[in-house]
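If you are new to this repository, start here. Below is one unmodified record pulled from the training split, so you can see the exact layout before writing a loader.
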Amino acid sequence: MAKKFKDTKVGKFLLNNGSGIVNTLGDALPSNGVLGIVKGLIDKDESLPQEDKEKALKLLEMDMIEMQEVTKRWEADLNSDNKLSKNIRPLTLMFFSVAYVVGWYLDYSLENITGLLSLIVGAYFGGRSYEKTRK
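And here is the target side for that same chain:
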């Protein structure tokens, strides 16, 4: 869940429908606080027709539910007795970090692994930040 606001369902919808909200918050990491602000901005956005506002609010609700479900899944992993499910995210982060460093030293093209590593780091640290703010 560490995608930026512009990559969420509601962010893509607003961007395609000419709303300026995405230009303001596009790179922000969505959290309940940011999505709450977005809800207020959608309500006040005069450039969106009422029908588009309703669609955007439904998509916003879907994004919020998606974030909550990911958090529940990660909490279930942490509470399980299986050591692999508790450690899979840190192990994945370590593996891709080591692969990136080795590839850098061996002068490989790192375009593919850079994107994956960015996604993993964002999900791991962004997700952990989100989990901590919920407690």
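Two things worth knowing about this chain: The chain has one domain: 5-134. The first helix runs from residue 9 to 16.
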